[in-house]
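Good day; I would like, with your permission, to put a structural problem before you. The record follows directly beneath this note:
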Amino acid sequence: MMPMLDPSQLVIREMQEDEEQMVLELLKDGFKDTENRLILYVLTRPLALLLLAVVSSGLRFLLNSFVAALLGPVLLTILALKLLLRRSPDLGCLGVYYRSGQRGLWVAVYDGDDVCGCVALQPCPQGVTRTAELRRLAVSRWYRRSGVGRRLLAFLEAQARAQGYERVVLYAAVVTKAAISLFESSGYRPTGGRSWLGYTILQEFSKEL
């Protein structure tokens, strides 16, 4: 059931040092859900199923075990995908990372002390001028579909404008339908993506400010 929030009690501000662990747990909770759904999506694509079947057939002759030949490639693929999805330089030191350069990380706080969401901004790599990347948009399970995510998105866009950016880009896993719906309804349009075995797993969205 969607919680009823008093908008006047929701404040967005910079993350404080003692909130870093809470924010990290919030992000990990979102990662786990998205990660599992994305792995299931990838493993059930026709080409992935075909490749797994071919590898399993070959391993049956080497391992002389049907179970090991069947599960081995699947487990290795899952491990590789998990390592790929979790590879990010900011997760080990959120505070230090987002306080350096032109980056920033903000939290949504409800009723004075309940950290219920977060969002981050960083400049795009050199060569992409006046463009900021939206990162780490997450809302705790209890506060989802209550408007917190939309408030965080609007706040980040305002921050980007204030810093002189003219465009915001972001990447969303194809399985995060609610997030994609939020972005599209806020004026973001698909501009590319990242693929695996020919299947798009991350969609790129952008918006002119």
Remarks:
- The two ends are 33 Å apart (CA to CA).
